[in-house]
Structures are given as structure tokens and as C-alpha cells.
Task: inverse folding
């Protein structure tokens, strides 16, 4: 078996074993941390499709993450206050059902991905990076200055949203929901990587001219990739909001975009499990270094710098680098 | 809306535009010559402000504080260039973004470690404080007017530097053809360090000048960095002239937008919702401006390369 | 007889004051190898780019099998059967040779937007890819990453990818460059057989190969087409001799 496959399997096993252990040992906080890892990894899986496979350096994925969060927050807050979102052209009421929220999140994120993509993908290189950043900032400032949903202070949701047949307030059950979505997204990405679409997207990252020359419409290809990426990251945002029962403009900030990118890179960009490895590392670092030093971001920064300068391919890349020699 | 208020806001727009220009000029120069996206540019702005605040507190001299801001930012810039940045020139944009993002984390937390999270204060010296009366009876703070003057002077100085000095010739040559200038025997490593330090010094000066109006604190660099990026993207990456035009455009949009948009919406909406929508849109206005300009001209107003 | 497969009419392209294509009309007939030659800077690459669709002419019309394709984009022209190779290889270097060829198969099929089917296990596609690879003699290296291939192998791979498009026309931009004498010789029989499947517009600097292979030759000098004709006609053409050899002719 390839080393990368073994590492991937070990990661998934740990993601099951740790929460189970915590459940029997009665440590709900550990389960919550594992849930956070699963959700952040999901956000990273979304970015990895655009960034890792498609080579689209989006510095604005917080836009999708935050939109997912706000979709959840807006629907749930209207459900809490029994006031519809709007009456015209049809009655649209709030909801505290996760399935409903996810459905709306998918629509909203896809639409955002479509609009941002249509405009930003006209450019490339630094200009694309900056345009994606600009769209993220646009939403960030809008969220801050629009008072209806908490503005700068954010919005609290008092009860976690429900899932048919499950008790979402039980940490292990909520973890199971998040982990199941992550697995689904990973499975989808795995299939996508070897699909005609994935192959074309991957080739277009390395040489857009080559892809176009064999009849692949590169713009449409990248647009679809960005939309898929937006949907997955948006779903992660909705879950993250549910985990914290709180949303604020911070979810839309450029630091959030940067952090999502950091997990993906630390884990291994373009690798299936890179986002999971990166998110896990991030949370572990936060838990281990956080208590030692208030300024643990220095170590995070130093580590990121070292990975970028000397260990391209991230954790998974470094651990699996002997694969090529073995084949 | 009175003409005096309008004039005052236009001056405020010019003032923030000029400070943006100081920050953006280095950023665009570094991209134009070295092809590098430097997210840590905002950190150098912060370094300048902290150095100024520290020196002002120690010596009480504002001019010494400004000199310290320039020196500290240039030194920090040169150090970072030698240790990290020069390994990134040959890398792709993603690596540059990540490595310089890492530098932000290190700079910000490092500064917090040394100075703590509380803001420092840098006072406007007595000889520059207070309002003066401009033609037309406009009362305007002398300090802000001075800042506009400093910005103009730097713009002129940069123009002179680039068109009339040996260093300027090398910078322009570097923008056009990197292999050629190293083939001509110019020490390209040294040239890059100098350009990077120059850009850093300008950002540091801006940090100190603005620090006297606002507070000096960790994280002050990032909003400016993002605005500076908007500026150079609007102006066309690599173009100093574009940076000046972009900076003034962004500065004016950002100050005049909140003034005009609520009035504009007031024409056809009730006052309360006009104020809300106007204010929300005003906060997004520069990003809308940037997106519109890029969709219209994908490499900015004065940009040549994509 | 011999309706042109590809036809250029009055193609005009300028970059500022430089006229890269000066009112060029040219056709490519079924079953032929039509070589396009000319000194460096004559505008051959610019012309190829305009035919392939990566550069738009200022004026003029390009048609493929009677259909006007002047407005079609790069990828659209490729799907219509206009296949090209590059002077400097354009390949996905990190991917395997097979993946690069499969990309061509997928692009030609127009079925790019499939997210679940495993393209690396689709027997139909693999058979097509392998056929193309064996025609250029790269079947043994199918699983290797392109980055490990020699320069010559990369040129062969470019041709294999072009073949997967079931081309109506092949635009080959210096396929012999850097192959060396024996490499060029090995490629010649392949081009000879290919021309009966799709006529070839061949840009080439290797004059021995051009004179051995071409059915017709067009000569481009400073953006102007100064002559088109059979090998013998071109050899005898005074203007061509002047352009290539200077005044000594």
C-alpha cells in the first residue's frame, strides 16, 4: 500500500477513535475539539478543490464560510422569533432544521461562487488573489454595517439546530453529523480527483493553454470548480456557526480566509487528506501551545514559514514522499 | 450639506489618500521590480508606528520619532528581506502569500509580546496642533494639512528618484528586464534589499504619521495593508503613478461615500432605511470600485502586466 | 477536386507598427503536408496562433471544411478537429504521460463535466489513449510522469495528444526541433501516414525534412506570403532564394 493511503487511513481512524475514547472517558470538551477539527477540515476540503486541484489562489474563502454561517444564523433567528424572512413573492419562514439550513446554504454559496467566479476568473495571478480578497472584504464590511443581524456584535442562536432523529445537543451526535459530512465531502473529492473533470482541472492548473488546446473550456471549468468549492466551504460555515451557536463578521474576515489556507498548506495542498491533517494540527497546536504561551501564533507563523520555505507538500507530502521511489 | 463640510471631507479624503500612497508605493515598487506580493508590508507600517511612539516617549521629540520610524522600518525591512523574502522571489504567488502571512503572525504576536495589547499614544507636537484657517473660511487641522504636504513631497521625491538618479535607472531596468541588469554587473541582491528597505521606510513613515492621529497598536497594519492592495490593484500593480491615482481615488471614495450615499438613497427611500442602506453600501464602496475597475480593465488603470 | 480542408482568407494582424500577418491567404487540402517556412521573425508562430484561435486576427476569415470558424474560441476550434502541437511543449508536467493523453480523449469527447466516473479506469478512453501512444512509440512510458521524459519524447507526446482529438487538421509547430537527425528520421514515416487521415500544416526549420515531406510549401517573409507551390517550384523561385540566401542567387 502507498504510504499516503496508510497515512490517510490512520488519520480517519484517529478521527473516529479520539471522540469515541472521549465519549467513554467522559470528556465532552475533547469531542467538541474533534468536531471543530472536522468542520475546519470540511472548510479546507472546499478550498483544496479550488486551490489544490484548480490552482485558484482564493484569498476570499471566508466569504463562503461566513455566508454559510450567516445563512444558518438568519434562518435560525427568524425561526426563534417566529417572523418570516419575507412574504413576497412567496412566504419564506426561518428554520431550525439543519437539513433545510444546509439546502439554503448550498444555494446561497453556489450563487456567491457563481457571481464571484464570473467576475474574478476574468483575471488571473495576483489580480485574482486580490479580487477574491476584495469580495470577501465586501461581505465583511457589509456584515459589520448592516444592523439587522447583529452588525459588528454578531448574533447568538440559543438552541442548536435540530437534525431529524438525532439529538444535536449531545456532543457525540453532533460530532457524528459533522464527521459524516466531512467523509461525504472527502469521498466526493476523491472521486472528483480521478474524474474527467478533476483530470482537466488539474491539467488546467499546470497549463491552461494545454487544456484549452484539447477542447476544454478553461473558464467554465474553473467556474464550476469554484462553485463546488464554495458549496463545501459554505456548508462548513453553517456547521461552525452551529457548533458555536454564534455568528459574527469575524467568520467573513480576511484572517479567516488566511487561516483556512494555512490548514490546507500545512496539511498538504492538493492532497486528499491535507485539509484534515492541517486542521487537526492547527487545533492540536492551539491546545498544546495555547496554555504555554499566549503568543502561540508566533510558533504557528514560524512553522508555516518553514513549511513554505523548506517542506513544500506539507505534512502529508513530507510523510509520503517516499511513495514515488517505491512505485 | 454645506460647502465647508464638503471641503473638509475632501481634504480628509486627500489626507488618507496620501497616507495610503506612502504605504502602497513600496508595495507596488516591490511587486513591480521583484514580482513579490508582500502581505507583511502592513507589519512594517506597524513597526514604524511603534518605533516612533517609543522614541517620542523617550526623547519627547516628534522629528526624532519620525526619523526613528523610518530607520526602524527600513532596518526591519532589510532584515526580513535578507532572511526570508529573497528566498521567495522565484516562488509562485501562493508561496509568497503564505510566507508573508506567516511573517504577519510573527510580527504581530512579537510586538504584542514586547509592548502588550494596550495601544500606545503618539502626540502631535504643539507646533503642528490646532486648526488653521484656509481661504474660504475653512478651519482645518494643521497636522492633517502637513500630512498631505508630506505625501506630496514623497510623491515628488519618488518621481525624482526614479527618473533622475542612478538607483532609479536601475529600478526601472529591473522592472523591464531582470537578467539584463545582472548581466550588466549590477549587484541585484543588494538592489533588491535597497528597494525593499525603501518601501518599508515609506510604510514606516506612514505608520508614524497616522499613529499620531489614531492609536498605535498591534493589528493597525492589516486594514491599511488591505487598502493598499486595493490601491495598487486599482492603479495597476507595479505603477507608482497608478498607486498615487488609486490612493487618492480610494481615500476620497472612503471619506465621501458615507457622506453622499445616505443622501442619495434619501431621494427615494424613507430616511431611516436610507441611512442604513447608505452606510452599509458606503462601507463596501471601495471594494465595489475595485471590482468594477478590474472587470473593466483586468490589469488596473495603469497596469501593463497581468 | 481537392476542396480545401482549412482555408485562410486575407488574414491581417499588426502589433503596433509591426505587421505580423500581411493579407495572408492560404489553404490546406485533403491528404497533403503543407509546409510553412520562413526566416525567424517571419510571423509563422503568429499565424499558427491565429489559426488555432489563441490570437484574434485584425481582419480576415478562417474556415474549416467550409464552416467559418473565425469567431470560435481556442477550445471550440479544438473540438471541431483543429489539433495543434506547440513549439515549446505545453504539457501537464506533474501528471503521467497517460493522463496527458487522456485529457485529449476527454476534451475531444466533450464530456468534461463528469465528477464521479474514474477517468483512469475507463477502458474505452484508455484504449483510445494507448492507440495514440503506440502510434508515436510512447506506450512503454505511459505511466511515467511527463517531467521525466526527454525533450524528444515530449514532442512525440504532443503529437499523441493531438491525435486523440480525431483531428480534421493538424497544425504542427516545429515538431522536429531538438530531435536530432535520427529522431527526425523516425518521425517522418509517422507524418507520412498521418497526412492521409488529416492534412498537416507543418512549420519546420529542418529543411531536409521539409523538402522530403512537403507536398506544397508556402514561404513567409516579414509577414508576407511570398510564394506557394510544389517543392520544385519553391526551389526554383527567385524571391525565395533571395530571401533565404541573400543576393548571391
Result:
Amino acid at each position: 500500500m502507498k504510504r499516503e493511503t496508510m497515512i490517510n487511513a490512520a488519520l480517519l481512524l484517529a478521527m473516529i477513535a479520539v471522540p469515541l475514547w472521549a465519549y467513554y472517558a467522559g470528556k465532552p470538551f475533547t469531542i467538541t475539539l474533534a468536531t471543530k477539527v472536522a468542520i475546519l477540515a470540511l472548510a479546507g476540503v472546499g478550498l483544496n478543490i479550488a486551490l489544490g486541484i484548480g490552482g485558484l489562489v482564493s484569498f476570499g474563502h471566508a466569504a463562503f464560510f461566513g455566508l454559510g454561517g450567516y445563512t444558518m444564523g438568519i434562518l435560525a433567528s427568524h425561526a426563534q422569533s417566529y417572523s418570516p424572512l419575507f412574504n413576497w413573492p412567496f412566504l419564506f419562514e426561518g428554520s431550525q432544521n439543519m437539513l433545510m439550513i444546509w439546502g439554503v446554504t448550498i444555494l446561497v454559496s453556489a450563487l456567491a461562487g457563481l457571481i464571484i467566479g464570473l467576475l474574478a476568473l476574468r483575471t488571473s495571478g495576483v489580480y485574482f488573489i486580490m479580487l477574491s480578497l476584495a469580495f470577501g472584504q465586501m461581505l465583511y464590511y457589509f456584515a459589520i454595517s448592516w444592523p439587522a443581524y447583529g452588525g459588528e456584535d454578531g448574533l447568538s442562536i440559543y438552541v442548536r439546530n435540530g437534525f431529524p432523529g438525532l439529538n444535536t445537543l449531545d456532543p457525540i451526535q453532533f460530532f457524528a453529523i459533522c464527521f459524516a459530512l466531512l467523509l461525504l465531502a472527502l469521498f466526493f473529492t476523491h472521486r472528483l480527483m480521478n474524474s474527467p473533470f478533476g483530470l482537466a482541472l488539474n491539467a488546467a492548473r499546470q497549463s491552461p493553454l494545454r487544456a484549452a488546446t484539447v477542447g476544454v473550456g478553461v473558464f467554465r471549468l474553473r467556474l464550476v470548480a469554484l462553485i463546488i468549492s464554495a458549496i463545501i466551504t459554505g456548508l462548513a460555515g453553517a456547521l461552525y456557526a452551529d457548533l458555536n451557536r454564534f455568528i459574527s463578521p469575524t467568520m467573513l474576515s480576511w484572517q479567516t480566509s488566511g487561516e483556512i489556507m494555512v490548514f490546507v498548506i500545512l496539511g498538504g495542498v492538493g492532497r486528499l487528506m491535507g485539509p484534515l491533517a492541517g486542521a487537526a494540527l492547527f487545533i492540536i497546536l492551539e491546545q498544546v501551545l495555547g496554555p504555554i504561551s499566549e503568543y502561540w501564533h508566533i510558533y504557528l507563523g514560524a512553522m508555516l514559514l518553514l513549511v513554505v520555505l523548506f517542506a513544500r507538500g506539507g505534512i502529508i507530502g513530507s510523510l509520503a514522499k517516499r511513495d514515488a521511489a517505491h512505485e | 450639506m454645506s460647502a465647508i463640510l464638503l471641503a473638509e471631507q475632501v481634504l480628509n479624503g486627500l489626507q488618507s489618500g496620501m497616507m495610503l500612497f506612502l504605504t502602497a508605493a513600496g508595495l507596488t515598487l516591490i511587486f513591480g521590480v521583484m514580482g513579490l506580493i508582500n502581505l507583511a508590508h502592513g507589519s512594517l507600517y506597524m513597526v514604524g508606528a511603534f518605533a516612533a511612539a517609543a522614541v517620542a516617549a523617550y526623547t519627547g521629540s516628534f522629528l526624532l520619532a519620525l526619523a526613528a520610524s523610518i530607520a526602524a522600518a527600513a532596518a526591519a525591512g532589510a532584515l526580513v528581506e535578507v532572511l526570508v523574502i529573497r528566498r521567495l522571489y522565484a516562488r509562485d504567488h501562493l508561496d509568497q502569500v503564505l510566507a508573508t502571512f506567516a511573517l504577519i503572525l510573527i510580527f504581530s504576536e512579537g510586538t504584542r509580546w514586547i509592548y502588550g495589547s494596550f495601544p500606545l499614544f503618539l502626540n502631535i507636537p504643539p507646533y503642528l496642533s490646532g486648526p488653521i484657517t484656509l481661504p474660504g473660511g475653512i478651519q482645518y487641522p494643521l497636522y492633517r494639512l502637513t500630512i498631505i504636504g508630506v505625501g506630496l513631497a514623497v510623491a515628488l521625491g519618488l518621481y525624482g528618484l526614479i527618473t533622475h538618479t542612478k538607483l532609479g535607472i536601475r529600478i526601472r531596468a529591473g522592472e523591464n528586464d531582470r537578467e539584463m541588469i545582472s548581466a550588466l554587473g549590477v549587484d541585484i541582491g543588494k538592489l533588491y534589499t535597497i528597494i525593499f528597505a525603501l518601501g518599508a521606510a515609506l510604510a514606516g513613515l506612514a505608520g508614524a504619521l497616522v499613529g499620531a492621529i489614531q492609536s498605535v497598536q498591534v493589528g493597525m497594519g492589516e486594514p491599511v495593508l488591505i487598502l493598499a492592495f486595493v490601491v495598487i490593484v486599482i492603479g495597476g500593480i507595479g505603477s507608482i503613478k497608478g498607486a498615487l491615482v488609486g490612493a487618492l481615488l480610494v481615500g476620497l471614495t472612503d471619506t465621501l461615500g458615507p457622506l453622499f450615499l445616505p443622501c442619495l438613497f434619501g431621494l427615494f427611500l424613507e430616511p431611516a432605511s436610507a441611512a442604513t442602506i447608505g452606510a452599509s453600501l458606503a462601507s463596501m464602496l471601495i471594494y465595489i470600485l475595485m471590482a468594477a475597475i478590474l472587470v473593466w480593465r483586468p490589469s488596473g488603470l495603469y497596469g501593463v502586466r497581468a | 477536386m481537392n476542396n480545401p480542408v482549412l482555408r485562410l482568407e486575407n488574414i491581417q494582424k499588426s502589433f503596433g507598427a509591426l505587421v505580423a500577418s500581411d493579407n495572408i491567404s492560404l489553404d490546406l487540402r485533403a491528404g497533403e503536408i503543407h509546409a510553412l517556412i520562413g526566416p525567424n521573425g517571419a510571423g509563422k508562430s503568429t499565424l499558427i496562433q491565429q489559426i488555432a484561435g489563441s490570437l484574434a486576427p485584425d481582419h480576415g476569415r478562417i474556415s474549416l471544411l467550409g464552416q467559418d470558424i473565425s469567431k470560435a474560441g481556442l477550445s471550440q476550434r479544438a473540438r471541431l478537429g483543429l489539433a495543434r502541437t506547440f513549439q515549446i511543449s505545453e504539457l501537464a508536467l506533474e501528471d503521467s504521460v497517460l493522463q496527458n493523453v487522456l485529457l485529449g480523449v476527454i476534451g475531444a469527447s466533450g464530456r468534461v463535466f463528469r465528477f464521479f466516473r474514474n477517468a483512469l479506469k475507463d477502458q474505452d478512453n484508455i484504449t483510445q489513449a494507448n492507440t495514440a501512444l503506440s502510434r508515436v512509440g510512447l506506450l512503454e512510458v505511459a505511466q511515467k510522469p511527463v517531467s521525466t521524459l526527454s525533450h524528444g519524447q515530449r514532442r512525440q507526446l504532443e503529437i499523441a495528444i493531438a491525435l486523440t482529438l480525431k483531428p480534421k487538421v493538424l497544425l504542427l509547430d516545429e515538431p522536429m526541433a531538438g530531435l536530432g537527425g535520427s529522431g527526425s528520421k523516425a518521425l517522418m514515416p509517422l507524418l507520412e501516414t498521418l497526412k492521409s487521415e488529416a492534412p498537416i500544416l507543418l512549420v519546420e526549420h529542418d529543411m531536409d525534412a521539409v523538402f522530403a515531406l512537403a507536398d506544397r510549401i508556402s514561404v513567409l517573409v516579414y509577414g508576407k506570403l511570398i510564394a506557394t507551390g510544389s517543392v520544385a517550384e519553391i526551389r526554383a523561385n527567385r524571391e525565395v532564394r533571395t530571401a533565404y540566401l541573400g543576393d548571391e542567387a
